[in-house]
């Protein structure tokens, strides 16, 4: 499936979604975005940087390394798969693609969304789709 297909599916299926994006963590690029409103380019540019910080920032990486060391894990697998951020008016869902963990789908919903249903729809997409 393509980035545009993921964006369309996410916007159509996640309840009260107002924006969706796909971020390539390995390059730091926002591969695509779909929103119901227009946003300045500088805001869109920050989506990829913020996503990278949330999943792979220095402190997050340190925490993951400590857990791996304490558990005797020798893999490069990332521990953080999904992150939910609740802001004043919005819910921000971030989830890695199962088939390509270096790619993260970002979905922004109104804060009155059904959080369980929104998360289930994001998980359905990220568990089956690829770019």
Main attributes?
131 residues, alpha+beta, Beta-Lactamase, 5-stranded antiparallel β-sheet, 42% helix, 27% strand, globular, Roadblock/LAMTOR2 domain-containing protein
Could you please describe the fold and organization of this structure?
This is Roadblock/LAMTOR2 domain-containing protein. This protein is α+β, with helices and mostly antiparallel strands. It has a single domain (3-128), classed as Beta-Lactamase, CATH 3.30.450. 42% of the residues lie in helices and 27% in strands. The protein contains four helices and five strands. It has helices at 3-13, 41-56, 58-71, 115-128, and strands at 17-24, 29-35, 82-86, 90-96, 103-110. Strands 2-1-5-4-3 form a five-stranded antiparallel sheet, with helices on both faces. α2 packs parallel to α3 (58-71). The longest helix has 16 residues, at 41-56. The protein is globular and about 45 Å long. It starts with a helix and ends with a helix.
Quick structural overview:
Helices cover 42% and strands 27% of the residues.
Sketch the topology as an H/E string, one letter per element.
HEEHHEEEH
CATH topology: Beta-Lactamase
Number of contiguous helices: 4
Label the structural class.
alpha+beta
Low-confidence stretches: none
Shape: globular
Write down how many β-strands occur, each being a DSSP E stretch of 2 or more residues: 5
Whole-number average pLDDT? 94
